[in-house]
Amino acid sequence: MAAKKPNVAALVEQMPETDNDIKARQEEAKAQAQPDAPDKPKPKADRLGAASKFTGPDPAAAEKVFAEILSGGRESVTELLGLVREPGDADYKNYKASYVLHGVVLLAGRTGRETERKLVGDALAAQLGGGKHSKAVKGFFIRELRVLGDKAAVKALGAQLLDEDLCGDATQALLTIGDGAAAEFRRALDKAQERNRVTILHALGTLRDGESAAALRKAFGEEQGDAHRTAAWALANIGDAASADALIKAADSAEVWERTEATRNCLLLAERLAVLGRHLEAKRVYTHLRDTRTASNERPFREAAEKALGTLPR
Amino acid sequence: MKKILKRITRRHFLTGSAAALATVSIVPRHVLGAPEVSPSDTVGGALIGVGGRGPGTYGEMVKSFQGAGMAVKKLAECDVRWVGRADNKTTYTDFRRVLERKDIDVVAIATPPHWHALISIAAMEAGKDVLCEKPMTRFIAEGRAMVEAAQRYGRVFQIGTFGRFSASRDGKNVLTRKIMRSGLLKPCEAVVIKSGGLKVKEWSGLVNAKPQPVPANLDWDMYVGPSPMKPYHPHRVGGTHRGYWDYEGGGLCDMGQHYLDPFTWTWGKDDTAPVEIEPHAPPAHPEACGMWGWVELKYADGFTLVFDSGEWGKPYDRRKSRGVSLNDLGEEDRKKIAAMPDPEPLLTFGEAVKARKPAGGNADVAHRTVTILHLANIAIRVGRKIRFDPAKEVIVGDEEANRLVSLPMRAPWHL
């Protein structure tokens, strides 16, 4: 006999109401019990649906709900995804569907539940295309993929990198997953504009993606503002020896905070080069910092460089 | 403490700073409000994050310097809610413009915690010493980066809670610390239970708050900073930010570091962390910090710490509180404890700046302290027992939980 299909909507509604809604219902019940009492208008904050706090279900009962939805397989999980709304959506009802989805994600993500993890991850990734969900809901799904997604979700996440509203969440999910993410960022970099471009340059630096060094050098050399600054940091974090002269020159010619930031990039570059075993190149950068950062406010850099020089093999 | 102060003649790090000396030396003494303090013992100060705890944090910094025979002159304040009001001379909206000033030597940081690590590290890079409000960080990896920055740049860091100073002057606590640090208790059966006082409901977030327009005076992008961009809602700023994982960790993080600062000193847990953490809580909300019952945290030596919120579910009843005493040891071991030297007195922030030595609540110990809170919150967030490796600072055998140890930062911010 086939297993009974879970009633997902009913399971979602088993979650407790928020503190304010509980209070509002109690007030309503009290008013109904006293029909002769004068009818005072309620403050907005005390009405049903007003912004309020989570009360928390019994853990065992909640886990039963999550497990039952998971037992319904992809179909039930997809049905749950269809119920999720974010507070800014016109048809938003309450927090329950997104909360239950998070619970399902946490349960499926437990060690040893690889089949369920894949099921939920695939279901979430499949919802990122098309126009069925609002951007806010897609953002929520992406953040849930940050919790449990793996390599299988990378392509679907990479497809969001050019979306102004979703690039940030998709980047965080990809950086967390790691495996296969760099290729998605490299692919998106050429077309990405403004904030998304900075986000992607930043991600390539965070992943220390040596394959993108040439593109980062180009951005550092040709772009301005946050893109220029982020590319500089990314090259330093990668430990790109070919950028040493350009990073030093930029730091030496910068002033005020920008000089501090650019000098830190040089120190970071030297540290990365040292770890990569490129001691001569590291020594050159450290020596430059030791010899040029002589102002009192740059003492931390001078001393850090001096200390590091003492640790390099002679 | 006096013994240490006698060795100190003046601040070491100002000696090479002609610019700083020139700036502070033109300040009349009566303006400084401390006529007995010479200009060379007066440092330039700034407050970053002026709301909520800001004035209190800055006041603690001033007091700390006064106690060390020095003075602080406030030269700048910074807040992201001052759009259209900041003059970029004494009031700022961008902390980087404050940190670039050569006449500022020390900064008090009282922003929401998601900014603590980045601003502290940037301040240390710019040669400043830092007093940073608690909780120290938003996630564990930030704390490690702060510890490394303090070491790399040789700067003084003090967390904005001071319970360990009085704890370290209490003879009973000193004895407890000696017994715990001796490693003679095998296993250690002590249990410490912190019941209530953690403001769990008070600092919970809203789960159904509709986005609202950003006020004209607020730089929302800068406020959000390294955290994920979310629609604005007033509950996300101004103290109630504590209820959102994006910025803090609820009442546990807000109150926890106060409670744990003397705890970690007394119980000798300044250089390690719990290895097994078990929560009793409903599955956590993904965005808003919410209700939980209790969390049991066990150390490798058997020592147990419990947070019992008293605000949700059944109270903790697994074990009873139990201290340690010399009676737990044999005669030979008691002699060993008697022979142990007393711990070194802790230096206040002002004393540490003057001596160029680590402060009592330095980055290492503050990081270990806040790590306890982050571990408790991670266990609450994933809703299951987790295991932590204190040396590698990773959660073992639970990838989902381990993803909360280090969170990616929103561009262009990075550790």
Give the gist of this structure.
The complex is a heterodimer of chains A (314) and B (415). In chain A, 65% of the residues lie in helices and 0% in strands. Chain A is mainly α and 314 residues long.
Brief descriptors of the model:
heterodimer; A: 314 residues; mainly alpha; 17 helices; elongated; B: 415 residues; alpha/beta; six-stranded parallel sheet; six-stranded mixed sheet; 12 strands; 33% helix; disordered N terminus
Give the averaged pLDDT of chain A, no decimals.
Answer: 94
Mass-distribution shape of chain B: globular
Biggest β-sheet strands, sense, barrel of chain A: none
What is the overall pLDDT average of chain B?
A: 92
Most residues in contact, chain pair and counts: A-B, 70 and 62 residues
Helical content class of chain A: 55-70%
Helix and strand composition category of chain A: mainly alpha
Question: What is the spatial order of strands in the main beta sheet of chain B?
Answer: 3-2-1-4-5-6
Q: What are the low-pLDDT stretches of chain B, counting only 5+ consecutive residues below 50?
A: 1-32
Give the overall shape of chain A.
Answer: elongated
Distance between the termini of chain A: 76 Å
Uncertain regions spanning at least 5 consecutive residues of chain A: none
Beta-strand content bin of chain A: under 5%
- Major sheet description of chain B: 6 strands, parallel
**Rg over alpha carbons of chain A:** 27 Å
Q: Please provide the count of β strands of chain B.
A: 12
Oligomer: heterodimer
**Tally of alpha and pi helices of chain A:** 17
